[in-house]
Q: What sequence folds into this?
C-alpha cells in the first residue's frame, strides 16, 4: 500500500489538496472549446454564403488566437488557485514528512 504522503495530490502535513479546477478556469476552457468549434464551422459558413474567403481567413485567425488566449487563461487561473490554496494551508513551503 502506498503511504499517505506519497500519493499524488496529497500533502503529509495537511491532508488532501483540492485538485479540481476553479469555476472561472472551467468557464475559460469552455469558451476556448466554443471558439474552436466556431473555427471548425467556418467551412460550412463559407458554403452557405454567410462568409467570404477573406472574411473567413480573418475570422479563423481571430478565433484561433482567442482560443489560445482562453486556454492560457484557464491554465493560469487553475495554477493561481492551487498556489493560493497551498499557501493558505501552510504547505506552500515544501513541508516534508516529520517536520
A:
Amino acid at each position: 500500500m502506498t503511504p499517505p504522503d506519497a500519493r499524488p495530490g496529497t500533502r503529509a502535513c495537511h491532508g488532501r489538496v483540492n485538485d479540481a479546477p476553479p469555476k472561472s478556469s472551467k468557464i475559460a476552457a469552455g469558451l476556448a472549446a466554443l471558439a474552436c468549434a466556431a473555427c471548425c464551422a467556418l467551412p460550412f459558413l463559407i458554403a452557405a454564403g454567410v462568409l467570404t474567403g477573406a472574411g473567413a481567413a480573418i475570422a479563423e485567425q481571430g478565433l484561433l488566437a482567442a482560443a489560445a488566449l482562453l486556454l492560457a487563461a484557464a491554465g493560469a487561473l487553475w495554477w493561481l488557485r492551487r498556489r493560493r490554496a497551498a499557501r493558505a494551508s501552510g504547505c506552500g513551503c515544501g513541508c516534508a514528512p516529520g517536520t
User: Anything to note?
Assistant: The longest strand covers residues 10-11.
